[in-house]
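Ticket reopened. Same input as before:
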Amino acid sequence: MLGQLIKHEFRATARRMLPALGVLALLGLLANLSFRILDSGFGGTPLRILLVLFIIAFFIGMIVAWVMALVMMISRFYRNLLGDEGYLMFTLPTNTHALIWSKLIVSTVWFIATALLIFLLMMLTGANLARMNGEDLAGIFHSMGEGLEFLRTLGVTNGSLILLGLEFVAAVVVTSLTTCLQFYAAMGLGQMSDNHKGLWSVLAFVGLSFAFQFLGTTVFAGLTGTDTMNVVIANLEELMQTAPGIVRAINAGIGSTMLLELIHGVILYLITSLTLSKKLNLA
Amino acid sequence: MSAILECRGLTKNFGRVCALDAVDLSIEPGRVVGLLGPNGSGKTTLIKLANGLLTPSAGELLIAGEKPGPASKAIISYLPDRNFLPDWMSARQMLDFFEDFYPDFRRDKATEMLGRLGIEETIRFGQMSKGTKEKAQLILVMSREAGLYLLDEPIGGVDPATRDFILDTIIRNYNPSASVVISTHLIADVENVLDEVIFINSGRIVVHSSVDEIREAQGKSVDAYFREVFKC
Amino acid sequence: MSQTFRSDLPIYTQLIELWQRDIASGTLPPGARLPSVRDLAAELGVNPNTVQRALTELERAGLIYTQRTSGRFVTEDAAVIARCKEALGEGLIRDFLAAMKLLGYQKQDILSLLREEKEEES
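Engineering reply: fixed in the latest deploy. New output:
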């Protein structure tokens, strides 16, 4: 059932996201072409203004794509589950978990797709600008390789670098899931109200953010100065002495942050699934 | 025969408002049941509880012996009192959707009925009139071979031709192992297709009887009897 | 959904009367095959269980019979049909006489009125 839900969720979101990402890619190419033409000194003032506008449009487009992915994530949940369409979705022979996960997975895929496209377009732009400044691309890659080689001579293993990469990917996924769930949990709480569901959702969002911030600060403040914390800080200071140690410290840093984010996510998920199963209150 | 829908002391409160008050009810398979009552009497609340869209405040509701969940949702075909069709979807995409989620969905049946009403499968719901969307939704719901059809106000605000189509569809779709519950306040229109009626008022069941019994015992139509019971 | 029903009687009893009349008058000839319950119900715009109930009653009275594989048929027994026709006719006469009595007619007056009516016809 989850597979079917995901399939239809893609069908519903792709009709907006694919054209948006397509336009962004086109803007990226146009912007890079514009850089080249501007650099070559070709054309009169009107054309040059147009070219500058293309470049500006590309940068705005990147922001718009992000906002769209975010708005899509929120509106799909609100309209498809909590609006009139919810009468269809919540009477499907499936459970609430599958409904939530289908939304989570598809939103995360679009976030990552958007991020990946922006990353690729930025790389392209970077390379393009470097070429225009007369830098040799092969040279840039070569110096990047030298940098890695240098790290290795300092004793940083390939394994720890790969681990770092994997941790980064995992962190991206967990952050995306938690971001979605922060909105979902707020909307799950907001829909319990008999009227003003939207308003209560916004208030719930603010309330949840505040609560978790407060919780985080309190825990951190509580830990500061304790023996355990002092030991941790001492260990970190020792690690920071060597390059492999620094990499390990970063590993540990990302790892522990991710663990906290995961706990945060689980709590939000429980709020979402409980409000949508036990306290469902469709308008 | 065991009941397809059963309520025991079913109660639902919204804040301080009591929408259903300790309802005991049992509906057997193979029946066409009219759930009749004025607006705000608790008809929609009862149907939403049966669909698991609301949870009881007290008591319980069982569908074929089980609490509402994925299993009960697989055998219930539900026509809500509102439109659930997304504007961006075409009828054909919705047929795909129903086919994917409901093993009991008969696509050929739906296609045939859409064709009979002249509804193009390629047209998006956003481009259809309100009445056409209502018909399309009914066709989707009635094209399932479900165990229990819960139709919330299917004939409220439709033209006479559509009303006849709806009633005809319900009759033609009749199956001795399935039950149909039709909630409405337009009794005269549905009276002839009903086996039994449930009168509901202020969250309580006032009358639960067969249509024949009412006509025999009262010597009047269910519609007339309803007016008598509910006269204020 | 052309059929209209009286609202003060159960529909199944009205269906029984309707089909009794059709069989007695020959509108439904002996041996005629009846449509399926579903089709009858759809055609009349009534509940299939109601149709089923009326047919069961007719079957009990011997006016129709069921062949397990091929459906329901009007009886070919002329005596049964004649009895049904007789019963319907008696019922009509009873109702007629009761109505006339309410109007104050005596049996003799009624007979002479009927004779006059017959002469006008011929």
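Chains C and A do not touch (no CB pair under 8 Å). The first helix of chain C runs from residue 11 to 25. Please confirm and we'll close it.
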